[in-house]
Structure to design on (341 residues):
């Protein structure tokens, strides 16, 4: 049985990936410091898969603790590194916190892999590295644009750190650039747990519908898009999770074309904010209170993925449509409300 370390494995995308790894017969060890997730995620993973993943609470930004962790666990077949802070606005307010957490963690994980001869890394990158691309759909060869936020900058720098590291030792890596992951597991047992007021669209939509928020502000109605609202490539989190299993299999099977490969993870379809709202209203049966307001500073107008490379090389394709995304997000919000009662 191959053993995979999933850092950030109690988080949103990590927890869904753990379930998909277990489904494919992998043994999973989670490391998370619970800075943005909860321990009971382990119970819910166990309810879904029937297997409780091993777990260690650890701050990967701590070099000494991380080195000791790898010494205790030298026989890992691969690492999926999700652990990072991800709130764009918070990173603008406190850049050093983001550089410290996201970059130290990556460097410590790479060091642990190098020192213990663990060769396979899958890294969580983001479409944010493209900024507003000149050509759409955007493919992996598009130029990286100057980062607008420290968060985005940590993803650019992380890719560069990995690029130079794989040239210097036996570690190989795949970076997956996610577009906009939304939705939740069909069981509604795991999903996104936003702390405080959500920045992202989907949790704001579901929290408004359930009455936690009064009204959704739609940022910008005058973009150069079919309905004037901004366009993104929303992708179901389970599709994203499954791509990680495929990436791990590619590395374990030594099928990579180079020591560092980069793939877009999107559906290839651009959808507007209003299209997301319309789908949500249809699948949930809820009328959403929203109003169109000014643009949000730093937002790009439109971006969606060229998925040809991931489709052809990984043999992976996003399968779930928008209605499945919005319905699963709503069921997850309903479950959170049940738990709170
Ligand atoms: P999340 O916050 O739900 O999960 C991240 C997990 O990492 C959390 O459980 C948190 O407690 C943990 N963590 C953070 N710092 C840590 C540290 N120093 N040591 C140990 N654990 C630590 O976020 P997510 O949405 O699941 O995102 C996972 C990864 O994907 C992140 O790297 C994020 O930047 C990236 N990403 C996310 C999105 C998105 O929209 N959700 C898009 C593109 C990329
Ligand atoms: C989507 C659309 C908003 C909230 C962010 C990060 C990016 C990546 C994905 C990690 C935009 C609009 C939103 C609201 C709205 N994450 N919106 N009202 O901005 O594409 O990207 O998440 O790597 O780095 O920046 O995602 O969900 O915030 O917004 O109208 O209350 O919804 O303007 O057009 P975004 P988002």
């Amino acid at each position: 049985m191959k053993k995979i370390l999933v850092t950030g494995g109690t988080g949103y995308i990590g927890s869904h990936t753990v379930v998909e790894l277990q489904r494919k017969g992998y043994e999973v060890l989670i490391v998370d410091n619970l800075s943005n997730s909860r321990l009971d995620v382990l119970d819910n993973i166990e309810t879904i898969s029937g297997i409780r993943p091993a777990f260690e609470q650890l701050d990967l930004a701590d070099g000494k603790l991380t080195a000791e962790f790898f010494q205790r666990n030298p026989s890992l077949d691969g690492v999926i590194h999700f652990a990072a802070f991800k709130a764009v606005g918070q990173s603008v307010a406190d850049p050093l916190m983001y550089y410290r957490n996201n970059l130290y963690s990556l460097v410590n994980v790479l060091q642990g892999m190098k020192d213990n001869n663990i060769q396979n890394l899958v890294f969580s990158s983001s479409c944010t590295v493209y900024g507003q691309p000149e050509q759409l759909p955007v493919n992996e060869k598009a130029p990286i644009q100057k980062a607008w936020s420290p968060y985005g900058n940590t993803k650019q720098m992380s890719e560069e750190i990995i690029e130079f590291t794989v040239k210097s030792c036996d570690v190989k890596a795949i970076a997956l650039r996610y577009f906009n992951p939304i939705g939740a597991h069909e069981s509604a047992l795991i999903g996104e747990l936003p702390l405080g007021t959500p920045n992202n669209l989907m949790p704001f939509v579901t929290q408004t519908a359930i009455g936690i928020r009064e009204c959704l502000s739609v940022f910008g109605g005058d973009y150069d898009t079919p309905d004037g609202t901004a366009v993104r490539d929303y992708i179901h989190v389970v599709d994203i999770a499954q791509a990680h299993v495929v990436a791990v299999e590619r590395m374990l099977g030594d099928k990579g074309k180079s020591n560092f490969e980069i793939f877009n993870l999107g559906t290839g379809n651009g959808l507007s904010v209003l299209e997301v709202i319309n789908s949500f209203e249809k699948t949930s049966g809820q009328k959403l209170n929203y109003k169109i307001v000014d643009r949000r500073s730093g937002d790009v107008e439109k971006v969606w993925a060229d998925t040809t490379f991931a489709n052809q090389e990984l043999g992976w394709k996003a399968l779930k449509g928008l209605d499945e995304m919005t319905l699963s997000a709503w069921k997850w919000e309903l479950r959170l409300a049940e738990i709170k009662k």
In short: The pocket of nicotinamide-adenine-dinucleotide (ligand 1) is lined by residues 8, 10-14, 32-37, 59-61, 82-86, 101, 105, 124, 126, 178, 181 (CB under 6 Å). The mean pLDDT is 97.
